[in-house]
Design goal:
single chain, mainly alpha, 0% strand
């Protein structure tokens, strides 16, 4: 299992980093980055709908997938909400469309049992995967002249935090985190993940964003991303544990599905974007 995981990392990580590096809006690289994120949210939505079947709610993934990818297209082709207020109006209008779809598709199914659960699952999947993850991963890459660096900061901090928590937890972890959602997680591993993520964020900030982020800001961002990354991981684990499955899919050898690999970014990507916007780092 370890070597399968390692091989997948060796193959996929350089490819992802290259697409992020060449992802400028004024070049074809921007379209490749859009395709990367869109493909990720598409696969995540399909896996999510399959998981939902274990709750007794049969979700056709076609419309949820279209609505999910639409968030990525809005982020890529429209000005950011910071730049133009009309973008916020379009986005809020689309939220209304999502809510109408979620309820209308259940209302006209001609039955009542289990349909409120289906509505909740549809909304949760579309908003967490499409808006929270996909939309903000695109917005971060578009940010001023530091989009590439911000994505590297985000994924570098999250990946290293996850890896640090996993390795140190396995090596010295003795005290369980006391959550049935992920019984293998330990207090030692969790704390190590926070520490590693904070240190990596400070290092990346000093190397990639020394003119943009102060050391204190980078440290706070690292801690925030590490905490929210583990929260995202536990949130998807909650769904998998409830559904009675180990992984959301099996398309990535040794790593499961796209939802398994991207869960740590669901809360961390939007939080990073709004932290930077509220503190004036990006405009």
């Amino acid at each position: 299992m370890f070597w399968r995981r390692a091989l997948s990392v060796v193959v996929l990580v350089p490819l992802i980093l290259l697409i992020v590096y060449f992802g400028d809006q004024d070049r074809f690289g921007g379209l490749f980055y859009l395709l990367l994120v869109s493909a990720a949210v598409l696969m995540m939505q399909i896996e999510y709908c399959r998981l939902a079947e274990n709750f007794g709610a049969k979700l056709n993934p076609v419309l949820p997938a279209i609505l999910t990818v639409a968030f990525c297209l809005f982020a890529f082709f429209l000005p950011t909400p910071i730049e133009k207020a009309t973008t916020s109006l379009i986005l809020f209008s689309f939220f209304v469309v999502v809510f109408i779809y979620a309820f209308a598709s259940s209302i006209f199914r001609g039955k009542v049992a289990g349909e409120l659960l289906a509505v909740t699952l549809k909304l949760t999947g579309i908003l967490t995967i499409g808006w929270s993850f996909g939309y903000h991963c695109i917005l971060l890459r578009k940010a001023d002249d530091v989009g590439m660096q911000l994505i590297f900061l985000l994924i570098g901090t999250i990946w290293c935090s996850d890896t640090g928590a996993y390795l140190i937890g396995r090596a010295v972890g003795k005290h369980k985190l006391s959550t049935p959602i992920s019984p293998r997680k330990t207090v030692e591993g969790t704390i190590a993940g926070f520490g590693v993520g904070t240190l990596v964020s400070m290092a990346l900030g000093a190397i990639l964003l020394k003119e943009t982020l102060s050391l204190a800001n980078a440290a706070l961002i690292g801690l925030l991303l590490s905490i929210l990354g583990q929260l995202g991981d536990l949130s998807v684990s909650l769904m998998k544990r409830t559904a009675g499955v180990k992984d959301s899919g099996d398309v990535i050898p040794g790593h499961g599905g796209f939802l398994d690999r991207c869960d740590s970014l669901i809360f961390s990507a939007p939080s990073l974007y709004y932290y930077l916007a509220l503190t004036g780092v990006i405009t």
